[in-house]
Design goal:
Shape: globular
Radius of gyration: 18 Å
Distance between the termini: 40 Å
Number of domains: 1
Largest sheet: 6 strands, antiparallel
Order of helices and strands: EEHEEHHEEHEEH
Number of helices: 5
Number of strands: 8
Strand order of the largest sheet: 1-7-8-4-3-5
CATH topology: Chemotaxis protein chec
CATH superfamily: Transcriptional regulator MraZ domain
Length: 170
C-alpha cells in the first residue's frame, strides 16, 4: 500500500478506513478498534492519533499519515497566522496518542468523551484517510443530514462536470 504524493493518502481500497461500526464504550472508556482500522494505522507506534474534529462534533482519528497531513497543512502557513494558530490549538493541542492494548482497544481521554457525549454506545465511521468516533444518536442525525447534502449535491456536481467538458470541447 503505497502513499500518493505528500498528501498522506494511500492508493487503492485496501489502504482506507471504510465502513461504519457501533461499539460499546466500557466503564474505563475503552473501545475495540475494528481490525481493518488497526491495520491502516501502521506507524512509529502501535496506536492512533485522535483529536477533536474541526468539521463536526466528534473525535477524528487516524494513523501517522493523517498526522503528517495535518502537520503539512500547518507548516504551509506562516508562523503567527490566525489559521495556523487555530489549527495548532485544535489539532496539535487537542491530540491524544492512543496505543492499542493486547485486545485491540484504545482508551478514549475523559476530556474528549465529555466534549462529545460519549458514554455508552459509539459509532466509528471510516472516511477514507481518517475515521471519526461519534455519539450514536448524534451520528444518526449527522448521517441523515450528510445523505441529504449528497443527494442534492451530486446531480449539481455532475451537471458542472458536463458543462465543463462541453465548454472545453468548444
Amino acid at each position: 500500500m503505497g502513499r500518493a504524493g505528500l498528501t498522506g493518502r494511500r492508493q487503492g481500497w485496501g489502504g482506507m478506513f471504510l465502513s461504519t461500526f457501533e461499539k460499546q464504550l466500557d466503564a474505563k472508556r475503552r473501545i475495540v478498534v475494528p481490525q481493518d482500522f488497526r491495520a491502516q494505522t501502521a506507524g512509529p507506534f502501535d496506536g492512533v492519533f485522535c483529536f477533536p474534529s474541526i468539521e463536526a462534533d466528534c473525535i477524528e482519528g487516524g494513523g501517522q499519515a493523517l498526522f503528517e497531513t495535518y502537520k503539512g497543512v500547518i507548516d504551509e502557513l506562516e508562523f503567527g497566522d490566525e489559521l495556523r494558530t487555530a489549527l495548532e490549538t485544535s489539532v496539535l493541542g487537542g491530540l491524544a496518542r492512543l496505543s492499542f492494548d493486547t485486545a485491540g482497544r484504545i482508551t478514549l481521554p475523559e476530556m474528549l468523551c465529555d466534549a462529545f457525549g460519549l458514554t455508552d454506545w459509539v459509532v466509528i465511521v471510516g472516511l477514507g484517510d481518517r475515521f471519526q468516533i461519534w455519539n450514536r444518536e448524534a451520528f444518526q442525525a449527522h448521517r441523515s443530514a450528510q445523505r441529504e447534502i449528497a443527494r442534492a449535491g451530486l446531480p449539481k456536481f455532475r451537471a458542472q462536470q458536463r458543462a465543463a467538458r462541453l465548454g472545453g470541447a468548444a
